[in-house]
């Protein structure tokens, strides 16, 4: 090797090392606009092959002060242009604008209207994306004409390059080409190809490497910071035909995970309530290509990425929903409700009130995310003994526990198969009711029930303000929907059946918890613990208090002995079956026109008092621990429908003030009620929620500190 060659190689090596530093990217950032390119940050994933070129899987960048991400493993479509494009492999921003279906002249007023609509409806789009504009048409479009005023409207908004289909004619002044580069497409978009909103574009290949004519378009995701730490990862679909997803673990400068959300301008399934809805998914649902940790780091690392997606999740995406990330859960969904009960993942933060409230139970990540972020529409969760309805009550969002068996549990890590159910959170009562309609396959009924039943001891509020609020709600409900309210005494009714407090505690609830222990141990606990100990020299993994107590007990009894003892339990199962029949057939009743003869209303929440994320602050009279049965009912309210298999919705009705032990000032706490109907009456209860919304008895809640 000559001395000159050696020095040249040394120079290149030094340059590559320098380029790997963050300062290199910082120093060249000011030149991005000059070259009209978007330079990717250092790739977060190993590069992949694409069209013979090594590219990163994603590029992360900023535009107009907003963070974005674009997957680059596969373009969503390819365009062919008749003229030269910029240098190969360089990204540019682009906005696709559909032409009118009828062959008319496109005016400046139409351009302004379209851009205004994009800005108003889409948080991903912004005016800097108009630097390059693609007018889209299909072979079925009648030729359109672009007026000079329409082009001027784009130029005034920053457009510098215009891509025009061959069917579009131009009516422009001679000086337009000096202000705007106009490039013709060689062919219209294929029929059925709908492009709308922001994309990244770059040239990929052509007959000449110096004059590329093939353009690749890539999807765009805005990155939102998870300031309340409700997610464990972001995600996006690979869209390669495999049905798999890729995880995104990108962080902002403050260390918050960033969640990718797609443009709301994309076309999804027409007429579907879930069309384009952004959805978080609790981390006990399997999603192909992603790990399921269920709140336990050792479990997630041991089993790695999943090959299947849960049936409920597939149904959501089939309806047009868009998955954006996995939300936090307590270990193996056992119901942790405070920061004191979490081990591997920090307990999520609630946006409500003083910011130090509990999100309640194992679906806390999903509930807090919906309460926190207006860029998230729904979140999936699960409920065994209250893990949907309690978080819904504490965060003031809509939540449901559907009738047992009405939604598939396939592909979901079980806690206890006889009691598990799938649910979702939403801020809008209309969307909440509509999705309930589309998610289950149950019988419809023509009328609503004609009466409401309440047990005052299940609904007495802990503050005067909350008591007045719920009393006013019941009065308005009775008046506007012509549904009289009848009081009952559940404790007396249960005692009359021989189910007093002692019996319920020792037979029903003890049996329920033994059932949960048995099913977690049999379905995955025993296999996981055995494998972990083999691979780690006999060591146990780290569990939270609840799982450690359950599984230590199961281990001490012996795996086979526990199975034999559990499967010989007949008395407990018979009593639970009797309770379910009594609740559905006698308490709620059956009606051929209304499904459930009545609706039972109770409060699963805190009655207007706070429930702090730190147990030490939940002192009597000032804070209520989650799942505390603070009203001393014979049967804890959250266990009624798990035992009876009935449908149970939590709906927010208002908020009341309290003096915060944290902020030392008056804050607002959400107040909710829960609606219970006979098993199988989910459609009817969804219709009831819609009626409440139409009568303005309930409303869409806000994200952030206050729900209303």
Please provide a written account of the structure.
With 708 residues, the protein is α/β, with parallel strands linked by helices. It has two domains: 30-219, no CATH class; 223-492 and 576-694, Alpha-Beta Complex (Amidase signature (AS) enzymes), CATH 3.90.1300.10. Helices cover 31% and strands 21% of the residues. The strands form six sheets. A twelve-stranded mixed sheet has the order 17-16-21-20-22-24-23-30-31-29-25-26, sandwiched between helices. It has a seven-stranded mixed sheet with strand order 5-14-13-6-8-10-12. Strands 3-4-15-19-18 form a five-stranded antiparallel sheet, with no helix packed on it. Residues 1-19 form the signal peptide. Pfam families: Amidase (PF01425), DUF8016 (PF26053).
List its traits.
twelve-stranded mixed sheet; seven-stranded mixed sheet; 20 helices; 708 residues; Amidase signature (AS) enzymes; alpha/beta
Tally of domains: 2
Q: Would you identify the CATH H-level superfamily of the largest domain? A: Amidase signature (AS) domain
Beta-strand portion reads 15-25%
Using the CA coordinates, give the radius of gyration: 29 Å
Low-pLDDT sequence parts: 4-56
Supply the number of helical segments: 20
- What CATH architecture label of the largest domain applies? Alpha-Beta Complex
Helix percentage range: 25-40%
- Tally of strands: 31
* Mean pLDDT over all positions: 86
Task: Tell me, briefly, the overall form.
Answer: globular
The largest sheet is: 12 strands, mixed
What fold name goes in the CATH topology slot of the largest domain? Answer: Amidase signature (AS) enzymes
């Amino acid at each position: 090797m000559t001395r000159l060659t050696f020095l040249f190689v040394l120079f290149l090596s030094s340059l590559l090392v320098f380029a790997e530093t963050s300062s290199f990217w910082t120093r060249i950032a000011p030149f991005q606009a000059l070259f009209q390119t978007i330079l990717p940050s250092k790739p977060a994933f190993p590069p992949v092959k694409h069209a013979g070129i090594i590219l990163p899987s994603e590029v992360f960048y900023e535009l107009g002060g907003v963070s974005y991400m674009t997957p680059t493993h596969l373009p969503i479509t390819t365009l062919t242009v008749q003229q030269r494009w910029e240098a190969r492999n360089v990204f540019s921003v682009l906005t696709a604008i559909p032409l009118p279906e009828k062959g008319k002249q496109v005016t400046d007023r139409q351009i302004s209207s379209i851009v205004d609509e994009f800005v108003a409806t889409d948080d991903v789009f912004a005016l800097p994306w108009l630097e390059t504009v693609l007018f889209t048409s299909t072979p079925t479009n009648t030729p359109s004409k672009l007026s000079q005023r329409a082009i001027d409207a784009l130029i005034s908004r920053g457009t510098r390059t215009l891509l025009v289909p061959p069917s579009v004619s131009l009516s422009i002044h001679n000086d337009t080409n000096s202000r705007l580069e106009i490039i013709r497409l060689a062919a219209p978009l294929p029929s059925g190809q709908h492009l709308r909103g922001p994309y990244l574009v770059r040239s990929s290949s052509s007959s000449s490497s110096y004059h590329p004519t093939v353009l690749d378009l890539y999807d765009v995701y805005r990155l939102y910071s998870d300031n309340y730490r409700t997610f464990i990862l972001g995600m996006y679909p690979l869209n390669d035909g495999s049905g798999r997803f890729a995880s995104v673990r990108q962080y902002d400068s403050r260390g918050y995970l960033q969640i990718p959300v797609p443009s709301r301008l994309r076309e999804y399934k027409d007429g579907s309530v879930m069309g384009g809805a952004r959805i978080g998914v609790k981390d006990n649902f399997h999603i192909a290509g992603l790990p399921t940790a269920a709140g336990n780091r050792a479990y997630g690392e041991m089993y790695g990425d999943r090959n299947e997606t849960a049936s409920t999740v597939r149904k959501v995406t089939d309806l047009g929903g868009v998955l954006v990330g996995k939300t936090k859960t307590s270990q193996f969904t056992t119901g942790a409700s405070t920061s004191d009960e979490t081990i591997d993942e920090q307990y999520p933060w609630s946006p409500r009130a003083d910011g130090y409230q509990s999100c309640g139970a194992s679906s806390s990540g999903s509930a807090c995310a919906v309460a926190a972020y207006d860029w998230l529409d729904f979140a999936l969760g699960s409920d065994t003994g209250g893990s949907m309805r309690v978080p819904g009550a504490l965060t003031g969002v809509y939540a449901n526990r559907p009738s047992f068996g009405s939604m598939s549990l396939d592909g979901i890590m079980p806690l206890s198969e006889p009691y598990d159910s799938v649910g979702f959170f939403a801020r809008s009562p209309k969307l909440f009711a509509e999705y309930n309609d589309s998610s289950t396959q149950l019988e419809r009924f023509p009328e609503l029930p004609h009466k409401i039943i309440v047990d005052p001891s299940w609904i007495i509020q802990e503050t005067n303000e909350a008591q007045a609020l719920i009393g006013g709600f019941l009065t308005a409900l009775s008046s506007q929907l012509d549904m009289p309210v009848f009081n009952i005494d559940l404790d007396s009714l249960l005692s009359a059946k021989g189910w007093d407090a002692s019996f319920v505690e020792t037979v029903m609830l003890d049996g329920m918890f033994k059932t949960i222990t048995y099913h977690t141990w049999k379905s995955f606990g025993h296999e996981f613990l055995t494998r972990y100990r083999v691979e780690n020299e006999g060591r146990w993994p780290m569990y939270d208090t609840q799982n450690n107590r359950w599984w230590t007990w199961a281990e001490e009894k012996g795996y086979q002995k526990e199975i034999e003892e559990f499967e010989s339990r007949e008395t407990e199962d018979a009593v639970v079956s009797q309770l379910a029949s009594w609740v559905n057939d006698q308490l709620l009743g059956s009606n051929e026109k209304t499904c459930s003869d009545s609706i039972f209303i109770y409060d699963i929440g805190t009655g207007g008092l706070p429930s702090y994320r730190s147990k030490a602050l939940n002192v009597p009279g000032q804070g209520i621990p989650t799942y505390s049965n603070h009203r001393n009912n014979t049967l804890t309210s959250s266990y009624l429908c798990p035992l009876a298999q009935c449908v149970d919705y939590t709906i927010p009705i208002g908020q009341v003030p309290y003096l915060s032990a944290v902020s030392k000032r008056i804050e607002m706490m959400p107040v909710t009620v829960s609606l219970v109907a006979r098993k199988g009456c989910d459609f009817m209860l969804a219709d009831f929620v819609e009626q409440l919304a139409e009568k303005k008895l309930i409303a869409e809640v806000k994200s952030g500190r206050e729900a209303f």
